[in-house]
Design goal:
Layout lengths: L2 H29 L11 H24 L5 H13 L1
Helix pairs in contact: 1-2, 1-3
């Protein structure tokens, strides 16, 4: 199988997984003891927290997909590789 095809399929799986990890962020904050507002009224702090959360979700989704993920990337790569032959 072509390494480029495998990497592109892993990246696609990461795009699919990213919303799942983003949806877990509010639960993680509550579990850590923060309230819904984050405990601070400053908009810049909320904006920075949102940006950091988005970057973390992206990195987690990519790492999860590259480690094997849920198998979507592998299945897609096998399917596309079979069609190319």
């Amino acid at each position: 199988m072509d390494a480029t095809l495998a990497r592109v399929c892993q990246d696609f799986e990461a795009v699919v997984l990213r919303p799942m990890f983003e949806s877990l962020a509010p639960a993680a904050r509550l579990f850590a003891g923060e309230d819904d507002t984050g405990g601070d009224d400053e908009t810049s702090v909320d904006s920075a927290s949102a940006t950091i959360g988005a970057l973390f979700s992206d990195a987690l989704a990519v790492a999860f997909a590259r480690a094997g993920g849920i198998g979507l990337g592998r299945a897609l790569a096998r399917s596309l590789d079979a069609r190319a032959q």
